[in-house]
Write a structure and sequence with these properties.
The chain is 23% helix and 11% strand. By secondary structure, the protein is of the alpha/beta class. The strands form two sheets. It has a four-stranded mixed β-sheet, covered by helices on one side. Strands 4-5 form a two-stranded antiparallel sheet. It is globular, with a radius of gyration of 20 Å.
């Protein structure tokens, strides 16, 4: 799949753009992808999660993750997947993670996150001046709509402050946890 994406974007390979190998600076987030089972089947999903997926992390692997966390000082535990709440052992695993006293993030759809998602406070300007509600809409070429100006040449702050956001199924990604780019919801 990575090869297909590289062919779709015929740019110089990223590895050639950096002067030296990119190395980790520290492990501050221990992300646990508990599986690909999800109640949604979003085309944009980078883990290809969906209702028909059967990949679910075993109890033994969950236990090993807890052992690693218990023996380390990694400050943040990030639980993700398709829909973590669909994992049969998720309640137990979350209790065990919470008992470690670390920052615990769980990425799942959260309607309350709508108040904090980036498109509520962002206008993204494309290379050609087209206005978008967010960079995700920009990459999908979904400009601002619903009567608000859709180009920087017609920029109207008052109209943009009151605009209706253009949404799609890709917006599920920003309603995981507490909103886009937030590292999930603090539990």
């Amino acid at each position: 799949m990575a090869g297909d994406r590289e062919q779709a974007f015929p740019h110089e390979p990223f590895a050639l753009k950096i002067a030296a190998p990119l190395c980790a600076s520290a492990v501050e987030i221990f992300q646990v992808n508990v599986g690909n089972r999800c109640n949604l089947a979003c085309r944009h999903c980078h883990v290809d999660a969906g209702p028909g997926c059967t990949e679910v992390m075993s109890r033994a692997i969950l236990e090993r993750c807890l052992e690693i966390l218990g023996a380390s000082t990694i400050p943040t535990i990030d639980i993700t997947g398709g829909s973590p709440e669909m994992h049969p052992d998720i309640r137990w695993f979350l209790r065990e993670c919470a008992a470690l006293g670390r920052r615990l993030l769980v990425r799942s759809f959260n309607a309350a996150a709508l108040a904090n998602i980036m498109c509520r406070t962002t206008v993204s300007v494309g290379w050609d001046g087209t206005l978008y509600d967010c960079d995700f809409n920009q990459m999908l070429r979904i400009p601002i709509n619903h009567g608000a100006p859709d180009n920087v040449m017609a920029f109207d702050l008052d109209a943009l402050n009151k605009r209706q956001i253009v949404v799609g199924n890709h917006c599920y990604g920003c309603t995981a946890g507490a909103g886009s780019s937030c590292q999930g919801e603090v539990v």
